């Protein structure tokens, strides 16, 4: 029976054949232990000299790391294995022999591993992170489908920018200027006016010259937008969504979290509702914590976000930010003209902002004024303004950064490990 490592639990005490790669091995005089992987998981194959032909045993002792093989053997339950099963090997054949595989079990520097990202992905740790990323994506679709959202795909090439053009990659679109999208939000607002509740999931690009562990040049965002949803409604959707994906990772990625040594208790306590702190309250709190350099009207950096997060065991919303710090499309606080109805959701454990969201300006005259104040080209935003001319309604939305969220859930330090092929300030290879 040909199967995969992920499916061996169906064939206990039966003989199966698995196509795999040799991740690692060790052997004594009479037994060879083969660490095998096939993309679906990892399993140990045990080759006992007395139970196989001599050429099979010698092959098991001599094959090299990342050689591809077909392995035949009987599936055994093994309580000592994190996976729960092992393979008692009876047959082994080489598909392709790997020679001098560059990533050995010894320690390697980060730059070396990044240069070999196409191979580093094969490691058990990177495999675990990618499986968690996949689960977050799967759970995202499940959540929004269950909640009645419609998936809509905004364009990647755009003629305007939701937050100005200073951090955009410019290109020529025949004889026009175009940009790689930094957000699908404006288009999602149009879609929400047609379909009610929508979400997108796609790549975004920021030409931001940042080298921090939280930043990528190309990353993926989940961006819901909802008609007739006001500010508080928006926060409820966010906390329910984040709680859902955390629980899905706990339910379906236990082995991967174990491989990464993740503290499960910290994730198990993540349940809606989340605490909320206003920007004003955050400023007072930071002053009390000794951050005397931060003044009202300043944006928060990583140390400030971390200090606020450490005061809570769950993600925390920082709400009602100064208008001067936020993009043109955010709805003013009806009680204070100097604030907008927006929130950043800060993840625990120093992972920073994972969601930015707001209620959107729905009044035509106000939005037109904002476009002018931000010196945006009115012709490029004509269609966006028209959304407020023809049946405008209160509406809200947010964007969740996939890679930061996966970094938090996985417990890895840098977002470069949470995307298959990261694009960093000085890295476009591989």
UniProtKB/TrEMBL annotation:
Transmembrane segments: none
Keywords for the protein's UniProt record, in alphabetical order: Aminoacyl-tRNA synthetase, ATP-binding, Cytoplasm, Ligase, Nucleotide-binding, Protein biosynthesis
Enzyme Commission code(s) on record: 6.1.1.22
GO molecular function, one term: ATP binding
GO CC, alphabetical: cytoplasm
Catalytic activity annotation: tRNA(Asn) + L-asparagine + ATP = L-asparaginyl-tRNA(Asn) + AMP + diphosphate + H(+)
Metal-binding is among the record's keywords: no
Keyword Signal on entry: no
Residue ranges of domain Aminoacyl-transfer RNA synthetases class-II family profile in the record: 130-430
InterPro entries: Aa-tRNA-synt_II, aa-tRNA-synth_II, aa-tRNA-synth_II/BPL/LPL, Asn-tRNA-ligase, Asp/Asn-tRNA-synth_IIb, NA-bd_OB-fold, NA-bd_OB_tRNA
GO biological process, one term: asparaginyl-tRNA aminoacylation
Cited SUPFAM superfamilies: Class II aaRS and biotin synthetases, Nucleic acid-binding proteins
Localization per record: Cytoplasm
Family designation: Belongs to the class-II aminoacyl-tRNA synthetase family.
Subunit structure of this chain's protein: Homodimer.
Name of this chain's protein: Asparagine--tRNA ligase
Taxon lineage: Bacteria, Bacillati, Bacillota, Bacilli, Bacillales
């Amino acid at each position: 029976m040909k199967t995969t490592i992920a499916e061996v639990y169906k064939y206990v005490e039966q003989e199966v054949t698995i196509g795999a790669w040799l991740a690692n091995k060790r052997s004594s005089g009479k037994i060879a232990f083969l660490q095998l992987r096939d993309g679906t998981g990892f399993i140990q194959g045990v080759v006992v000299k007395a139970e196989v032909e001599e050429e099979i045993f010698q092959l098991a002792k001599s094959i090299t790391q990342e050689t591809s093989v077909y392995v035949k053997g009987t599936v055994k339950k093994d309580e000592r294995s994190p996976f729960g099963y092992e393979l008692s090997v009876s047959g082994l054949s080489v598909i392709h022999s790997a020679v001098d595989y560059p990533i050995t079990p010894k320690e390697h520097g980060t730059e070396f591993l990044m240069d070999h990202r196409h191979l580093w992905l094969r490691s058990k740790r990177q495999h675990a992170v990618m499986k968690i990323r996949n689960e977050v994506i799967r759970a995202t679709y499940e959540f929004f489908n269950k909640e009645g959202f419609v998936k809509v795909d905004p364009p990647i090439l755009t003629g305007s920018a939701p937050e100005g053009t200073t951090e955009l990659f410019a290109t020529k679109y025949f004889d026009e200027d175009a940009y790689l999208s930094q957000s699908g939000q404006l288009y999602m607002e149009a879609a929400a006016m047609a379909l009610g509740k929508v979400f997108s999931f796609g790549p975004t690009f920021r030409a931001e010259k940042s080298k921090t562990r939280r930043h990528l040049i190309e990353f993926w965002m989940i961006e819901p937008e909802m008609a007739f949803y006001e500010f508080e409604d928006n926060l409820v959707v966010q906390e329910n969504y984040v709680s859902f994906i955390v629980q899905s990772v706990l339910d379906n990625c236990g082995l991967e979290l174990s491989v990464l040594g993740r503290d499960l208790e910290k994730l198990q306590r993540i349940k809606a509702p989340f605490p909320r702190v206003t920007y004003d309250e955050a400023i007072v709190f930071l002053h009390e914590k000794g951050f005397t350099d931060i003044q009202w009207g300043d944006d928060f950096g990583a140390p400030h976000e971390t200090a606020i997060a450490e005061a809570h065991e769950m993600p925390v919303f920082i709400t009602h930010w100064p208008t001067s710090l936020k993009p043109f499309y955010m709805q003013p606080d009806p009680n204070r003209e100097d604030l907008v109805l927006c929130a950043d959701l800060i993840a625990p454990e120093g992972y920073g902002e994972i969601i930015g969201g707001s209620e959107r300006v729905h009044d035509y005259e106000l939005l037109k004024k904002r476009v002018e104040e931000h010196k945006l080209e009115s012709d490029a935003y004509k269609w966006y303004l028209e959304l407020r001319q023809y049946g405008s309604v209160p509406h809200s939305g947010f964007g969740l950064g996939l890679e930061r969220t996966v970094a938090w859930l996985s417990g890895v330090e840098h977002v470069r490990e949470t995307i298959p092929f990261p694009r960093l300030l000085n890295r476009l290879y591989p």
